[in-house]
Every structure is written in C-alpha cells, then in structure tokens.
Design brief:
With about 70 residues, this protein is mainly alpha-helical. About 50% of the residues lie in helices and about 10% in strands. It is globular. The two termini are about 15 Å apart.
Length: about 70
Amino acid sequence: MAGGRAVASRSSKKEFRTSVILTETQFKQVRELAREHDVSIAWVLRQAVDRYLAIQVSKGRDAVEQAPGANE
C-alpha cells in the first residue's frame, strides 16, 4: 500500500495514516479553520478530501485517475 499505513481505530472503519506536505499558506489557513471550529487539523483535511472526492464522483470521474499529478 503506497503512501499510507493502516492504524487501529475506535470506530469499526479501517483507517489509514498518511503524510502530506502543505505550503505555509495552506497550513496556516487549515490551522485557522481548525481553531475557528474547535476541531483538529486532521479533521479539516479529511473534510476537504471528502468534498473533493464527492465533486469528482459527481463529475463522473474516477477521482484517483483524474487527480492532478496522479500519473507523475
């Protein structure tokens, strides 16, 4: 499994841990959103991924194959 590893979870869903590199601006904006809504940075990023994937599905695209940079 490239890019992630499974981790134990309190929920019944299998979850995976991964790392991302953000620009300073992206990090500051994500951190500020997390602070404003009293949630973790990880929660904000998971919400962003969920919304991105939903948009791709609604466009009839395979989100993984059509993602920018996916074939690099």
